[in-house]
Amino acid sequence: MAITPGGLLNSTPASIQQTLSTNYLDLSSASNAGWGQQYVPDLMEKEAEVFGPRTISGFLSQVGAEEAMTADQVVWSEQGRLHLSYTCTMTDNNGNINGSLNGGKVTITDHIDTNADYTSGSHGVRVNDTVIVANPESVIKALVTEVDGNVVELAPYGVADCSAITDAKTDCVIMVYGSEYAKGKKYLSAAAAEADTRGANEPSFKSYTNKPIIMKDYYEVSGSDASRIGWVEVSTEAGGSGYLWYLKAEADTRARFTDYIEMAMLEGELGVHGTDAVDNFLGTAGDSTGTQGLFAAITSRGNITSGVNGVNAATDLAEFDAILAEFDKQGAIEEYMMFVNRSTSLAIDDMLASMNSYGAGGTSYGVFNNSEDMALNLGFTGFRRGSYDFYKSDFRYLNDKATRGGINDAANANAIRGVMIPAGTSSVYDTTVGASMKRPFLHVRYRASQTDDRRMKTWVTGSVGAATSALDAMQLHFLTERCLITQGANNFMLMK
């Protein structure tokens, strides 16, 4: 049946929401458009999301996992490097070593990883160790003859002393590469003092902590407004559609709260109890405020690069290879997920295009169960460089002007352009469980018990629907208590 546009006088409203030839009003008509906009404001049945899909949730679900916790904080220990390497200062290049003028002395100043636990004398260099001492002036191989706290005496091989390196040089590195003993000798120092034995090196661990924060929000609609029906078709969280009115704002509140959860896990900062303004406002007793998010964890314990910024393909390739060299220094991670902003994504595309190998090179897609289709369906593009597999995805959070995109515009050189996250798991010692466990490098811990699960709580109060109080309104409450665990941050890379 043909529908004839009706005018103001000959259009008859239907008793139910039904499309008939008799109730069609042509709002494109100049004579009727003003009337419709003035008297029938709910006739517009499709909302216009002019800023596109507005949520950013899904980042953590793609790279991490979630696990319940019961304590006020999470404590885990990460084992340090297996091998012994330290920064040092050449304090005496021709000293009186064991009664004669030869050898030299270095003073150990820090662990090779400056963020590792190190206190004076806590190193693992021992008498009879063979070491390499290096700086831009020279490389010396020597035998350790005495250790006194963080002062190490050396007898170099092939030469009488360490004068190839100038005294008071502060840019030296010392590394243990083995040991040497005379026939029939025990683990003793050159002085042969029974009390000065060569002790066993214990594995080195460093403990890290993070604490959950409590986040809340709510949506409220009065009883009168809840009874008003306005037929507006909206999209649901599951991707379908339905006719809602007053619950539309509730869905927006829930979506925004979900995004805030994710944003807090990325941007969170730790406060210092008793010293910062946040603590003064919240009045927390005996506890620090805030939580350490991903960006702060990488800044504190991981790696930062300013490379691959689109200068040109050749420069970007060289800078990307420098990133690989840094990863080589940290461990044996072979798969990385990259979440980058648009400009960095295009720079990587141009870099790969210049190599004529985009998406090639035998990418394994191991993190996606070896399925390229699965990776593509999730918005990832894979490529291989050296021995590493990378899975790149545009990160909306870094592009949207109302989120990090706008902050990046203002931050300039301090803008965050992307993050590289190792795929898979690592082993840590969990002090809560009291055992070594394998966990994803990045995962969420939330508060939960047998009586209260605080992963994502939602409850309704008020007199609308199932009445819980005398309040003439419906209030929907949202709450979560959680924190992010960035495990093995030395394998992460922040792109700024």
Structure description:
- The chain is α+β, with helices and mostly antiparallel strands.
- It folds into 3 domains: 1-41, no CATH class; 45-80 and 205-496; 81-202, Elongation Factor Tu (Ef-tu), domain 3 (Beta Barrel).
- Helix content is 20%, strand content 31%.
- It has 10 helices and 25 strands.
- The strands form 6 sheets. A 6-stranded antiparallel beta barrel has the order 3-6-9-8-7-10. It has a 6-stranded mixed β-sheet with strand order 15-25-19-16-18-17, with helices on both faces.
- Helix 7 (313-330) packs across helix 8 (342-354).
- It is elongated and about 95 Å long.
- The protein starts with 29 loop residues before the first helix and ends with a strand.
- Residues 1-56, 189-196 and 357-361 have low confidence and may be disordered.
Helix content: 10-25%
Tell the overall outline: elongated
Strand content: 25-35%
User: In terms of per-residue confidence, which ranges show pLDDT below 50 for 5 or more consecutive residues?
Assistant: 1-56, 189-196, 357-361
* Total discrete domains: 3
Mean pLDDT: 76
Largest sheet data: 6 strands, antiparallel, barrel
Number of helical elements: 10
Radius of gyration over all CA atoms, rounded: 32 Å
Widest sheet: strand ordering: 3-6-9-8-7-10
Structural class: alpha+beta
The number of distinct β-strands equals 25
End-to-end gap:
62 Å
